[in-house]
Amino acid sequence: MLELNKIYCGDCLELMQKMGDSSVDLVLTSPPYNTSRAGGYDVYNKRYTTYSDSIPNEDYILWTLKIFDLYDKILKPNGCVLYNLSYSGENADLIWLLISRIITETKFTTADCIIWKKNTAIPNNRSKNKLTRIVEFIFVFVRKEEFKTFNTNKQVKSIIKKTGQKNYENIYNFIEAKNNDGSNCLNKATFSTDLVEKLLDIYAAPDSVVYDSFMGAGTTAYACINKKLNYIGSELCKTQCEYIESQIKSKSQSRLF
Q1: What is the pLDDT of residue 42?
Q2: CB 210 within 8 A of CB 229
Q3: Kind plus residue range of the DSSP H or E element containing 160
Q4: Domains: count for the chain
Q5: Residue 224: how many CB atoms within 10 A of its CB?
C-alpha cells in the first residue's frame, strides 16, 4: 500500500500497478478529454505540458480501457469511479464512443450520469449552429455485478411497515458548482473544490481513501483535506506536483482549508 495523502509524480498506469489490490474506496478524477485541436501539446491553452491532448481517438480509447482495468484492481468492492468528461466542437463524438467501449470492454457500467452546471460558459461558442455548453458530465461507473449494491451516503427517510422496504432520500443528478478555484499558471482545465466536495458528500464514507489518477492542480486533494478524508494522487507533470504540495503547505499554515 502506498503512503496516503501524497501526490505521486508519474504515469497513473505505473502507479496503479504498485498500489495494493482493493486499496481505495473511491476514484474521483477528471482526465484529459482529448479535445484539443490537432497539432501536439496544448501549450496555447496551458492545460497539459507533458501530454498531448490530440492523439487519435482509438489510441485515447485504448489508453482509457487500460486505466479502467486497473481501477478494477485498486477499487474496493462496491466502490465507484466518478469520471468527469466533456466534448469539443472538433471532437464531439469521442465521449460517447468512449463510454460505449468502457461498458462493453471492461467490468464497469454506468450507474448514473451527473450534470455539473458551471457558473459561466467559457469560451462562448461562436458556431452558427452549436450551442454554448455550460454543463459537463460526471459519469458514475460501477462494476456490473455491483450495480445494485455500490456505496452511496443516501439516508433512509422512512420504512414501510408491512414490507420493511426502505425509502431513501432524493439526491438529484444535477449539481451547480463553480467552474474552478481560480486561474493558475500551470493548468487551465480544472474543476472546482466546490464540485468535488459535493461529490464526496454523496459517495465518500468517513475515513475513505480517494484516488485521483489525474490530480492536475490538486483540487481533489484540497477537497479531501476539507472533508477529512484520505487521498492518493498521481500527476504526470513534476511542476504541477510541486505546485500542489506548495499549495497544501501554504493553505494548511494559513488555515485556508
Answers
A1: 40
A2: yes
A3: none
A4: 1
A5: 28
Task: Let me know if residue 184 belongs to a domain.
Answer: yes
Neighbour-count burial of 76, counting CB atoms closer than 10 A to its CB (0-12 exposed, 13-18 middle, 19+ buried): middle
Mean pLDDT of the chain: 90
Residue where the block lists cell 496544448: 42
Question: What grid cell was written down for 176?
Answer: 451547480
Cα–Cα distance measured from residue 69 to residue 172, given in angstroms and rounded to the nearest whole number = 29
Would you place residue 3 in the very low, low, confident or very high pLDDT band (cuts 50, 70, 90)? very high
The answer to whether position 1 is within a domain reads no
**What number of helices (H) and strands (E) belong to the chain?**
6, 10
Give 12-69 pLDDT, tens digit per residue: 999 999 999 999 999 999 999 997 655 444 433 444 555 566 789 999 999 999 999 9
**Predicted local distance difference test score (pLDDT) of residue 140:** 98
Q: Residue 52 has what DSSP assignment?
A: B
Highest mean pLDDT pick, 14-18, 120-124, 237-241: 14-18
How many beta carbons lie within 10 A of that of residue 133, not counting itself? 14
Q: Is 60 a member of any domain? A: yes
Q: Is residue 90 part of a domain?
A: yes
Nearest C-alpha neighbor of 41 from the set 251, 228, 187: 187
DSSP label at 241? H
Q: What is the CATH number of the domain that holds 105?
A: 3.40.50.150
Q: Which domain holds residue 154?
A: 6-253
Residue 236 confidence (pLDDT): 92
